[in-house]
TrEMBL record:
<keyword id="KW-1133">Transmembrane helix</keyword>
<feature type="transmembrane region" description="Helical">
    <location>
        <begin position="230"/>
        <end position="251"/>
    </location>
</feature>
<keyword id="KW-0812">Transmembrane</keyword>
<feature type="transmembrane region" description="Helical">
    <location>
        <begin position="124"/>
        <end position="143"/>
    </location>
</feature>
<keyword id="KW-0472">Membrane</keyword>
<feature type="transmembrane region" description="Helical">
    <location>
        <begin position="149"/>
        <end position="173"/>
    </location>
</feature>
<feature type="transmembrane region" description="Helical">
    <location>
        <begin position="204"/>
        <end position="224"/>
    </location>
</feature>
<dbReference type="Pfam" id="PF06182">
    <property type="entry name" value="ABC2_membrane_6"/>
</dbReference>
<protein>
    <submittedName>
        <fullName>ABC-2 family transporter protein</fullName>
    </submittedName>
</protein>
<feature type="transmembrane region" description="Helical">
    <location>
        <begin position="25"/>
        <end position="50"/>
    </location>
</feature>
<dbReference type="InterPro" id="IPR010390">
    <property type="entry name" value="ABC-2_transporter-like"/>
</dbReference>
């Protein structure tokens, strides 16, 4: 609890700092929302033209997209600079975090806090519209609402874990931007669509090597279609916990071998 209170104080201080430039804050939030709107619009156009993708309707695809958008927004809000660890390694700014009386990861998470307000509003809107259509079709029940909230939180933890594992690779190879393009950006973009539309090798990769499909696709099979049983939900939660635990472990290992730049 002590570290949670400390994190809260650091986040508030970071937010106050960012709000010194209110126009930049709201403009960047708006641009992020517009980018997501364009991404979903492209998917919607395809589905409206062809009716479905491998049996997935527009409402189902919207559900997948919204879950991932909200999970990513939560992850990048609470741990924005984990994604930018490379610049701390190259500049030597990580040294200053080592001198602080708080865990290094906690300090990094509280730097440059980025509240993804635009993404949260846009993701919530797409989710509400998609679930309304699914309710009208009799495809889901009221029980899907709390399950969906749990899946969003689980997905945020999973994305955080994947991001943390990728970031800690920087302790060995320093330059991780290209790796992040694969493990975070490309993989996350891929599962905005139903994983079943991809070749088998790619489907396996998104379920095992970079298990980002457990953030939305796997639990959605049960929530939306009743496939596989409740164990699919449990497997999604388990994957999130295991990946995040692996990320924390590798972070400790990587930090123990970090050598200061001396600058």
């Amino acid at each position: 609890m002590k570290w949670l209170r400390m994190y809260h104080l650091l986040v508030v201080a970071s937010l106050r700092s960012r709000m010194q430039y209110k126009f930049n804050f709201w403009f960047s939030s708006l641009m992020a929302a517009l980018i997501n709107v364009v991404e979903f619009a492209m998917l919607a156009i395809i589905l409206l033209k062809f009716g479905h993708i491998k049996g997935w309707s527009l409402a189902e695809a919207g559900y997948l997209y919204a879950i991932l958008t909200l999970s990513k927004a939560i992850y990048r809000t609470v741990a924005s600079d984990v994604h930018h660890l490379e610049k701390y390694l190259l500049s030597g700014d990580l040294d200053s975090l080592l001198l602080r009386p708080v865990p290094v990861l906690l300090g990094l998470m509280s730097f440059n806090v980025s509240f993804r307000i635009g993404e949260i509003i846009q993701g919530a809107a797409v989710l509400a519209v998609s679930m309304q259509a699914l309710f009208a079709a009799g495809q889901i029940s009221w029980a899907s609402i709390p399950l969906t909230l749990l899946v969003i939180l689980s997905g945020a933890l999973l994305l955080f874990g994947i991001g943390l594992l990728t970031a800690t690779a920087g302790f060995w190879i320093t330059r991780i931007e290209e790796l992040q393009n694969i493990t975070e950006d490309a993989a996350r973009t891929a599962v905005q669509y139903p994983v079943s539309i991809y070749p088998k090798w790619m489907e396996v990769m998104l379920l095992s090597v970079i298990p980002v499909a457990f953030a939305n696709y796997v639990p959605s099979l049960y929530i939306l279609r009743g496939e596989g049983g409740v164990w699919l939900l449990l497997s999604a939660f388990a994957a999130a916990v295991l990946v995040f635990a692996a990320g924390l472990f590798m972070w400790r290992v990587g930090l123990s071998r970090y050598q200061s730049t001396g600058s």
